[in-house]
Amino acid sequence: MNVIATDKAPGAIGPYSQGYEVNGMIYTSGQIPLDPATGQVPEGIAAQAEQSCKNVGEILAAAGSGYEKVVKTTCFLADMGDFAAFNEVYARYFVSKPARSCVAVKELPKGVLCEVEAIAVR
Asked: CB neighbours (10 Å) of residue 117?
């Protein structure tokens, strides 16, 4: 098991790692739309989806993988009313159309609107 760590994605805000590589499989922790350079969260679901997807991509890259190698994502939305706008952004990143679950949750860390996690091959 290898820990994945990069300063190009937000550091863990709890007792967990950004990701793990195990036997050629990459598992990312959920990524909220926190800009790792500024510590800020952008406004609106489109900008937040963009930043969450970018954060996942940086962890994948640090592990020697990429969006095209993602086999499964789990997406969390604070409001299912944001589903269409979220999908519009998500589709630009995960063009291989990996398997996915997308659920609405009561609340996300730091009050953000979305969170994305991924499983990929190296």
From this structure: 19
